[in-house]
Write a structure and sequence with these properties.
Layout lengths: L1 H4 L3 H12 L7 H117 L3 H11 L9 H8 L1
Amino acid sequence: MLDKLGLDASLKGGLPVALKTKPGERGKFAEKTVEYAETVLMKHVAALVEKLVGMEGEATTRSQAVVDAEAALTTAAQVNDQSADALLAAENVLAEKSKELTATMRAEKALLPKSKQLNATLEVAKENLAEVQALAAKFESLCQSEGPATTAAVEEMKQMEPETVCTEDQAASVEA
């Protein structure tokens, strides 16, 4: 322990001898040795006290750092929980939308043949409409002109092929 105090070798050797004699029986050298050792010990104690006070400040600083870190951890945990909840909600919405998309794609695929059939029927109906409009225009022009040509034109219309006229089945499929 005396090595830590920084005493000279002569004081280290003389101090134990001086401390063995009673305070009233000590000589001048022993008295000075004890006084010097006491002064060195007091300086060492003061340095230790100062170090301890510094450690209390450091302990307070570290304690505050621990409190701040715990608060930051709590906040981060809350943000993490909220983010996890948001992620779960987003994954649920994604799963729901994926199911809806799949169902819509199946419905679209199922309607494709019907759509093709209706488009073909529509084209036939457009062709028939064009023929009927042409015949109506021809009939209109014939009705406005007089004479035997009109009677011949009416007879010609009566003899027209029945396929140019839309059947009830075709009309129903166009309406559907």
